[in-house]
């Protein structure tokens, strides 16, 4: 990746729907150059997809939390597999230190969150958890 690729990615982060011609003008390169770079970045897996941004109120309602998870023995892959199918799990992160995994959770209400957390805690090989409810988010 060179400086043009990095600048192209920055422009797409700002607005992934920016037309190729507009990107070319901003980068001061030919349209075909932008298209070729996009294709290369996609095929190499650097760009894995395009997404939308929603007004924060539209989807951020409800309870959001990070749950730190301790796993007994060498059963991380089994626990990750079980968490992947859970409807309240938004993302799973591996980590170092005291905890084996971090799970991002969402639920509509505190009651639904409590039920989801109890379901997660009952997954075999989850030894212990610690949950922090997210109160505010500041985008960087």
From TrEMBL:
Query: What's the domain of life for this entry?
Result: Bacteria
Q: What one GO molecular function would you report for this record?
A: sequence-specific DNA binding
Q: Is-annotated flag, keyword Nucleotide-binding? A: no
- Xref: SMART domains: HTH_ASNC
One GO cellular component assignment for this chain's record is: cytosol
Domain HTH asnC-type: start-end pairs = 1-64
What InterPro entries would the database entry show?
Answer: AsnC-type_HTH_dom, Dimeric_a/b-barrel, Tscrpt_reg_AsnC-like, Tscrpt_reg_AsnC/Lrp_C, WH-like_DNA-bd_sf, WH_DNA-bd_sf
Please provide the Gene Ontology terms (biological process) for this protein: response to amino acid
Q: Write the record's keywords in alphabetical order, separated by commas.
A: DNA-binding, Transcription, Transcription regulation
**SUPFAM superfamilies with a match to the protein in the record:** Dimeric alpha+beta barrel (SSF54909), Winged helix' DNA-binding domain (SSF46785)
Q: Which PANTHER family match?
A: LEUCINE-RESPONSIVE REGULATORY PROTEIN, TRANSCRIPTIONAL REGULATOR AZLB
- State what protein this is by name: Lrp/AsnC family transcriptional regulator
Lineage of source species? Bacteria, Pseudomonadati, Pseudomonadota, Gammaproteobacteria, Pseudomonadales
């Amino acid at each position: 990746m060179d400086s043009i690729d990095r600048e192209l990615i920055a422009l797409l982060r700002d607005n992934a729907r920016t037309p190729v011609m507009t990107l070319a003008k901003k980068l001061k390169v030919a349209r075909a150059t932008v298209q070729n770079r996009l294709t290369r970045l996609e095929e190499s897996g650097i760009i894995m997809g395009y997404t939308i941004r929603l007004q924060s109120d539209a989807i951020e309602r409800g309870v959001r939390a990070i749950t730190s998870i301790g796993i007994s023995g060498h059963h991380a892959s089994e626990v990750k597999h079980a968490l992947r199918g859970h409807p309240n799990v938004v993302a799973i992160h591996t980590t170092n230190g005291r905890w084996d995994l971090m799970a991002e959770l969402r639920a509509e209400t505190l009651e639904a969150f409590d039920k989801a957390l109890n379901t997660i805690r009952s997954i075999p090989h989850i030894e212990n958890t610690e949950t922090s409810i997210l109160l505010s988010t500041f985008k960087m």
